[in-house]
């Protein structure tokens, strides 16, 4: 305001004039609050500018006019798509001025996790070098670590790439990943299925429905041997072998038949060495099972199987099949007539499994029943340990004469045989 008056005149005679200076906008700038922001925060942009008359404010994002016609641009919940370069334009009738460009950097947790691999996941073989990489569509800031799960179990790695230098069967499973930065964690990726194919392993011959020990079966009963293995894919073929002295011979197909009661195929088998001629064995379930409806004593042997799939083949260890049968023929061998002082040897033997306990008993001779047993004379002798064979030797005396019986017994039954011993007196001069 400017005032003037005539000298000597009263103050009230003075005149007052107001002078207004108008100018275009200047000192235009944008203030961001808060400067460090993350997705979901409330953010305010303020456009400061001096000008007369009061400048009108326009907002620009990435060079395009947007936002309110006000010096405040308020984001109640800022989003990732709100990030960018902003400036404001202040203008009045005298001119305009842009603020400097400011960058609104919205931080957010990783988005869009996905597992990628350069491998052909449709066919992975044990031993292959496989890598899985957890890729992210976008993240601000970049991920600092990664979280991997296999079948919901946490894996002990935080790297973006999970590598299997030589993948094994136990690595099969469903894999997922997540990414983490200073803001938070991403959602979980879709699962990627890893199926490791591998050749047969842990191949074993087992008796059907028996989970331990050597196979044992009573003579005349059914025997089923199963070729157990672990592989992926399952074996496409099995081969069976049989040996009596650990020299294995392949059981080969000699006749292909189809039972009218079933659609399952079965094959009669024989040993290639012709030891037993044709064996009434059958291979069933695609070779998985080797069966014989009525087991024979001669079937006691070592058996082995080979399992094979598209990757490799593997043999089992040999498995013994023991056929249980009672003592068949008991043999008692000795000289039926001996002279006094001759060496008397008595052998008792049998054929059985398990080996039989053998007992040799002597009943006194009817003609010498009144005589006492001589020192060392046989009354009863038994085997220990079990061996299916018993032998006794003595210098014969008259008292050794008698009826000898050899008894054989095991868990499957018993048998016996008897033979009389005559001891002739030695001629003595008088």
From TrEMBL:
PROSITE patterns: IG_LIKE. Coiled coil: none annotated. Residues 409-430 are annotated as: Disordered. Residues 409-421 have a biased composition (Polar residues). Gene3D superfamilies: Immunoglobulins (2.60.40.10). PANTHER family: IG-LIKE DOMAIN-CONTAINING PROTEIN (PTHR46013:SF7), VASCULAR CELL ADHESION MOLECULE 1 (PTHR46013). This is Ig-like domain-containing protein. It comes from Albula glossodonta. The lineage of its organism: Eukaryota, Metazoa, Chordata, Craniata, Vertebrata.
